[in-house]
């Protein structure tokens, strides 16, 4: 018999879950049940500056209130930093990483930045200030303890990936339940940061490593992460990791059309639960769980 499909819900404990999170978790659980798969919970807490234990406990309480059950133990990214370090080492061996010593302010105010196109999330593409910097000078500055980030040389990384595969693409779930191949171009992100001193791995790097180690076969998440999939597919190819199937479901929005946020107290599950509404009543107010 083949192994069952593996789904995951992966919130970050930097605020309270809101209705959008509830919908995403319920969609993921629904699809897992539909396909007789496994449902895993992952706590994405690599951002130590924002993650809080109280939010982790609140996540457990809210999901249990929704009637969800997940396998134990729960995977916490903060327990697996060595895995991300190994992935970074492999990317260094592939010669697709370089140190960048520019601060956010320096990048923002740099003359080249003003003429750069925007990334899918609305920020100017990094203009490559340190892309061709002397390796010996960089090593000296790093040895002196100078703060820096590690950036992916996107053009070099894409060229290397295309030596391994004809195109960079992923399989996305369609309305009829089938999966269609979608070709993507990670170049639209520019030289993305994969690690910095205060956060030794990025979201994109950690998530592809976790998905591989946990055996995730189906990634279900909001459509706001659709464009990030191109970056993650690139990293999967470079690191020779398996490719999951993807489903980016519609987002829940407020009356102005703005997506829900953790800063919106009125839509937090904790606040909604305090009104006395039951999980069953709440689910009746949400959109259908699948298209």
CATH-defined fold name of the largest domain: Rossmann fold
Q: What is the rounded distance between the termini?
A: 29 Å
CATH architecture of the largest domain: 3-Layer(aba) Sandwich
Beta-strand proportion: 15-25%
Largest sheet, spatial ordering of strands: 3-2-1-9-10
CATH class membership of the largest domain = Alpha Beta
Shape: globular
In the predicted model, the low-confidence regions spanning at least 5 consecutive residues are: none
The tally of domains stands at: 2
Name the CATH superfamily classification of the largest domain.
Answer: HUPs
Verbal overview:
It is built from ten helices and ten strands. The chain has 291 residues and is of the alpha/beta class. The protein has two domains: 116 residues, HUPs (Rossmann fold, 3-Layer(aba) Sandwich), CATH 3.40.50; 171 residues, HUPs (Rossmann fold, 3-Layer(aba) Sandwich). The strands form three sheets. A five-stranded parallel β-sheet has the order 3-2-1-9-10, covered by helices on one side. A three-stranded antiparallel β-sheet has the order 4-5-8. α1 links the parallel β1 and β2. α3 packs across α7 and α7 packs across α8. The longest helix has 16 residues. The mean pLDDT is 93.
């Amino acid at each position: 018999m083949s192994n069952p499909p593996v789904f995951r819900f992966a919130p970050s404990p930097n605020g309270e879950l809101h209705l959008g999170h509830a919908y995403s978790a319920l969609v993921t659980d629904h699809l897992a049940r539909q396909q007789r798969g496994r449902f895993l919970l992952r706590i994405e807490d690599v951002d130590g500056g924002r993650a809080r234990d109280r939010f982790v406990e609140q996540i457990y309480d809210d999901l249990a209130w929704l009637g969800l059950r997940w396998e134990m133990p729960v995977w916490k990214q903060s327990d697996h930093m060595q895995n991300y370090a190994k992935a970074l080492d492999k990317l260094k061996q592939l010669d697709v990483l370089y140190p960048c010593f520019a601060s956010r302010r320096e990048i923002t105010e740099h003359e080249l930045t003003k003429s750069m196109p925007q990334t899918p999330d609305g920020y100017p593409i990094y203009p490559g200030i340190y892309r061709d910097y002397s390796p010996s000078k960089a090593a000296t500055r790093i040895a002196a303890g100078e703060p820096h980030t590690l950036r992916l040389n996107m053009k070099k990384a894409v060229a290397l990936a295309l030596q391994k595969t004809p195109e960079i693409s992923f399989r996305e779930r369609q309305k009829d339940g089938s999966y269609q191949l979608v070709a993507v171009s990670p170049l639209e992100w520019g030289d993305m940061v994969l690690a910095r001193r205060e956060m030794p791995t990025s979201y994109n790097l950690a998530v592809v490593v976790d998905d591989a180690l946990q055996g995730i076969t189906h990634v279900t998440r909001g459509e706001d992460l659709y464009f990030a999939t191109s970056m993650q597919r690139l990293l999967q190819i470079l690191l020779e990791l398996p490719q999951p199937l993807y489903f980016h479901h519609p987002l829940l929005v407020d009356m102005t059309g703005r997506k829900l946020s953790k800063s919106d107290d009125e839509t937090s599950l904790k606040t909604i639960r305090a009104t006395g509404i039951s999980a069953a009543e709440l689910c009746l107010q949400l959109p259908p769980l699948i298209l």
